[in-house]
């Protein structure tokens, strides 16, 4: 398969969970919270982390995880690798969620602050937001 010249690379690997051991352990026990934090950022604050957490907990978590992983990849033009989004979330949700969390952090977004917290941080620092959410992703 030819690579897309506009596709960027992940800043962290899928199996680099232990780059942040405390967050990896947290996600192992509370994946819904990590998912909620990621979803709020990826959706630009249109869904709260609490609502996203509930959706993840009461729905098909692997499917919701795959949907938001795809959204995150589109935001940053990241490749779908090493496997499909649905396969990764179905078989290794902790690895996937921690990679997505680290990706946001490595790009200057702190999911634990929530969308509004990040917007305030960017304003204080006088920097442009690294992402601009759109309604149709």
TrEMBL record:
InterPro entries: PLAC_motif_containing (IPR006461). Pfam families: PLAC8 (PF04749). NCBIfam families: A_thal_Cys_rich (TIGR01571). PANTHER family: DUF614 FAMILY PROTEIN-RELATED. This is Protein PLANT CADMIUM RESISTANCE 9-like. The gene is LOC106777480.
